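Example complex used in Figure S2.
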Amino acid sequence: MNSKKKIAESARKSARVLWRSTPILVGVVLLVSLANTLIPKSAYTAVFSRIALVDSFIGSALGSIMAGNPVTSYVLGGEMLSQGVSLVAVTAFLVAWVTVGMVQLPAEAMLLGRKFAITRNVTAFLLAIIVAITTVAILGLI
Amino acid sequence: MKKSEKSMAGWYFFLIVIAAYIAVFFVKSDAVIPSLAFFASIIRKIVPIFVLIFALLVAIDYYVKPESIVRHLGKGSGAKGWAWAIAGGIISTGPIYMWYPLLNEMQRKGARSAYVAAFLYNRALKPALLPLFIYYFGLAYVAVLSIVMVIASIIQGIAVEKIMEAKK
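Predicted assembly (310 residues):
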């Protein structure tokens, strides 16, 4: 097979891979958009207890169910800090926002395998709490 | 799940999301238009990334053979494999779900699930967003968090792989 034919074959195969993923990707973007509209930004600060460990758990849980650009999480995180939420809770929130994806979980399960997706998201949820406590402990701010 | 059912699963998921939108339309109709506007803004942003991923998929299919994936990201690739996974995660752009098809292809060609998990974890660290992150939280905080997250990505990769192997 000459190289032009090989490239065309690779392009056809790659287009098939992307086409198979299209309904999942579009579905996830639609879900992210709906969550972004339905969940008011003010809802996030109301749920914290001001106990570091509990708040890091709540922060991780909130970050896990949220989705979107990390920039949004920085703005929300900054807002939480200014409203008195602890740094450990905000850190867990920021880390979970970008490492755990409840909204994307169906897509991840379909494309990377259910076992992998669930294991990865559960460990990422727990790690968000550990990373938050470790980061804030290193900074000496707990 | 049979192959035909598996290939239809994505479309079933898509239909469920459409049904959710229809349900929201009846319960809170004013949320639908802003959601669709937000959807359109995301789609506009991710189209160029989609093109990049298509090009990467073609390049990988054309140049990269399963043996080389196994050599760089398979069992026994050691520290170099971690370095590839971490660097790949950090430099990759766009939403996380855009990368699932490519990672799926790499998994099929023999990449370790530990490296796939580490890649996904390091997607959290985005050099382009660092100035903004530092603006909100300070340089010391961002530096410490970034280092802790890179270490956490290796721990997660190992944990995911061990759990996956234990479940087999």
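Residues 134 and 140 of chain A are 10 Å apart (CA to CA). Chain A touches chain B through 60 residues (CB under 8 Å).
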